[in-house]
Amino acid sequence: MQNRFIKIAVTATFAALVLVAGAGADDIKLPDMGSPADAILSANEEARFGRAIMRDIMSSGSVIEDPLVTEYINEVGNRVAAQTNDGDIDFTFFVVDDQRINAFALPGGFIGVHTGLLEATRSEDELAGVLAHEVAHVTQRHIARAIHASSRQSLLSTAIMLGAMIAGAAGGSSDVVQAGMAVAQGSAAQAQINFTRANEHEADRVGISALAGAGFDPYGMASFFDVMSRQNTRAPDDRAPEFLMTHPVTSSRIAEARDRARDFDPVRSVDSVSYGIAKVRVIVDRFETPKEAVAHFENRAYQNQNEYERYGRMLAYMRDGNYSMALDIAEGLSERNPEVIAYRIALGDAQAKIGRNDDALRTFETALELFPRNVPLVIAYAERLLDFNQPQKAHTILLDLLNNVPPTPNQVRLIARAASEANEQAESLYYLSEYRFMIGDLIGGINYLQQALRVPELQEIQRIRFEARIDFIREFMTEEQLRNMPRAQPSGRSARNSS
Q1: Domain 31-261: assigned CATH number
Q2: Which residues lie across from 105 on neighbouring strands?
Q3: Residue 166: what pLDDT?
């Protein structure tokens, strides 16, 4: 079981680490773009490139680590992607904490959505339309084509430039963006890899087909384009939606999108409960203070609010420490909609906050019987178990989950905490090493494994596993990283290999 966790935790990251983990620009090994025969990135190279950029975005702290929001955006995204993807691209959808209205596609199937865009959509169909457009950019290999179009540059400089652009799109530091663009020969190079008008129209065409095939309203994409276009006409240039800067929308393009949508049977879709919940969660989180969040949701009388507004009100009360009022709302929501996992989590959390620990545990355990291995539910339950000083049980349920679902870095840190509090120090250090590997810190990860090897109560099977892990990781390290490894090594095979 532990070995399975190793594979899950790191499979998605090590291809990228081969390229850029901990390495400077001179260490990045990328194919030569000099000849037409190898000018376009292979699908495998795109995936490695995308993982490398994704690692940087994750380490910036800008990605929303909300299991309910993350699960929802992946559910909608993969539903759309299944219509246009032949199975060789493993899509990952994530939400960036940024109020600018934007979305972007990375090489290899990583699709980012700003919280501002999620909030700006008026329906699930509009959100699905944006995701379908970004998915089409990936499946139609537009990023590889864009890099090919700038073939006068080396792939290395183009890669650095694209990474800087994505960092900016994801809300990264302006200093980082400027530095990256300088290395990539200035801002003029950015225009060379912008998606062409033909790329945008192709993404519209393919995306609308996928939208309809997934059961969404095929007019959803045109509807969102229309909303953005109208916002642009009402706002000064410096306040135009970011989406329009990266996805220029004209009246003719909107008309063409509507024409394409007419080729498909009309769909009368209804927004899912998960859409309403995800949207209201990002709304609650955007307020700087709990008081502001509470004031926003108290603007309307409770009896006049829909269930999502009431849910948002409950979340605002939780942020403000008004747990009794939050509990009243959570009880009503969960009683009327027992099938909604978010409401069950809210009820358990509110019960825990007012000291009704036994009730909270029963709420979570009952929910898990109905929804086994649901990621947001298990994560919330594990956090409450840690609050209630039951770390061993938290470790057990997290290990079961993460052996079956690819974990996020924050989830790996959570299981490390559970193992530590359960006095399983070797396993805790091992999880911390996996966390460091996931964010690209190979040396830091090996340091944790070496600490684990020095734990007095270490079992033989653990020693074998940790040493094998060190040996495996070393294969992905640069010469400079190997030189910077600590000289002192634990006895055993990894010590012999470090000489």
Answers
A1: 3.30.2010.10
A2: 111
A3: 54
SS3 content of the chain, % helix, strand, coil (to 5): 70, 5, 30
Parallel/antiparallel/unpaired status of strands 92-96 and 103-106: unpaired
How many other CB atoms are found less than 10 A from the CB of residue 355?
10
pLDDT averaged over every residue in the chain? 81
N-term to C-term CA, the chain:
31
What's the distance, CA 266 to chain centroid? Answer: 32
Q: Do residues 454 and 34 touch, judged by C-beta distance below 8 A?
A: no
Among candidate residues 142, 135, 82, 129, the one with its CA nearest the CA of residue 112: 135
The highest-level CATH class for domain 287-371 is mainly alpha
Q: Tokens 């358990």 identify what position?
A: 348
**How many C-beta atoms surround the C-beta of residue 105 within 10 A?**
26
Closest residue by Cα to residue 438 from 30, 5, 1: 5
Report yes or no: 98 and 117 within 8 Å, Cβ to Cβ: no
**What percentage of the chain reaches a pLDDT higher than 90?**
57
Mean pLDDT of 405-430: 96
Q: How many residues are listed for the chain in this entry?
A: 499
240: three-class secondary structure by DSSP: coil
Q: How confident is the model at residue 487, as a pLDDT?
A: 61
CB–CB of 236/183 below 8 Å?
A: no
Residue with tokens 């530091």: 173
CA atoms within 13 A on the CB side of 453: 23
Alpha carbon distance 374, 219 (integer Å): 32
Task: Give the model's confidence band at 160: pLDDT under 50 very low, under 70 low, under 90 confident, else very high.
Answer: low
pTM of the model: 0.81
Tokens 């940087």 belong to which residue?
A: 56
Higher pLDDT, 435 or 483: 435
User: What are the residue ranges spanned by the domains of the chain?
Assistant: 1-15+385-499, 31-261, 287-371
222-234: b or e for each residue (b if 16 or more CB lie within 10 Å)? bbbbbbbbebbee
Helix segments in 290-354, DSSP class H: 290-297, 307-320, 323-336, 341-353
Q: Between 442 and 250, name the one with better pLDDT.
A: 442
Is a pLDDT exceeding 60 seen at residue 157? no
pLDDT value at residue 38: 36
Distances (CA, A) of 109 to 45, 50, 141, 345, 419: 12, 7, 10, 31, 33
Higher-confidence residue of 187 and 411: namely 411
The residue assigned the tokens 């080729």 is: 263
Q: How confident is the model at residue 237 (pLDDT cuts 50, 70, 90)?
A: low
